[in-house]
Amino acid sequence: MTTITLEVPEHLAHTLSEIGDQLPLVLEMGISRFAPLSTKAYVEAITFLTGDPQPAELATFRFSDDVEKRISELLEKNRNDTLSKAEEVELERLSLLEEQLQLVKATALAKLDQSNNS
Prior knowledge:
Elements: H1 10-19, H2 23-32, H3 36-49, H4 55-59, H5 65-79, H6 85-117
């Protein structure tokens, strides 16, 4: 492990002293929030959803190859029980996003079904 000296604002000093030896974990989890590919997944989803897609487009939405590859990597590491804490948080974020998108897709498919049966 590497030792790093940081200057922090006074209001954080007390909290950091209480965290103690958990600081590396807190830093890893915090940094994971900025994981480029999971952030890219959110940007892709928001950009797509704000573009007023039609139900057929909603039903077939997929992430870019980069994001899909990262999801596959994280799922494989999860199966092998080799996820770091940061990767665990990243997979959780991506899973939550995917869950929400599945609900949007299901609604879109129901609308398509209704319009086909009308």
